[in-house]
Here is the input.
Amino acid sequence: MRTIEEKAREIVGKVGELPPIPGVILESMRLLNDPSSTVKKIQEQVLLDQSLTAFILKVANSALYGLRKEVSTISYAVNLMGYNTTRAILTAYLSKNLYRSRGSKLIQNILWRHSISSAVLGKKIAGHLKTVNSEEAFIACLLHDIGKGVFLKNRSDDFEKVVQLIYDDNKTSIRAEEEVLGYTHVEAGYLLMKNWRFSNSIIDTVIYHNHFSEYSGENLLVPIVSLANKLSHLLGFSFDKREDELIELPGLGLDESALEAIKEGAREKVKEYLEIFG
Here is the structure.
């Protein structure tokens, strides 16, 4: 059986141009990943992009963080929220822009809702575990379906056919993508994450979020993303409302009561995130 990496290498020419990370975000991410970076340096970099600056300040001043004082500078926002949360906000900005690149507005909105809902659920799951950074889980869940953003950018007409198959024939996205495109969002997402130089721990989640039963590693982000993806489908934040077996629960040490608390806590939070993140 071919690995995702082998499949991805075979379809490089079919995927089309992989969008680059804007320079401002790339450098901002690099600085945020470096504990020795100063807040002043991060602010100088972010301020080069007016739209990104406005997005960060909007989120920082939202009810999500409940800050008592108005946040009017990037440096103040980063100091209050911390580097991990700021990285999560930058990732949301990056993925949102890719999902909103081309194609049907309805499809764009559903993909973004699924991305955000999965991220909120992943953050809730990590919060229950207390062994995984919740912002890392948020970022990984935001990016798990990023290959569909590549479809929207490069093959939006074909992706509309994929969505139609999901609705009309009740097919999974994987099966519908293979039928229409000849490859899936997993391979496209893998190539994009490699191109964007994300960590292997994030790339693992892109590879295995639909194939958790094949995963044999110890990266806890993988079962978290896989479970968050399934719960998002179950709660109706996607093209289809599937009821997949939640095989991730035992390995994460979650029981039914914890699962219900995660789902209940996520419902209202998803609406809040969507209102703020747009």
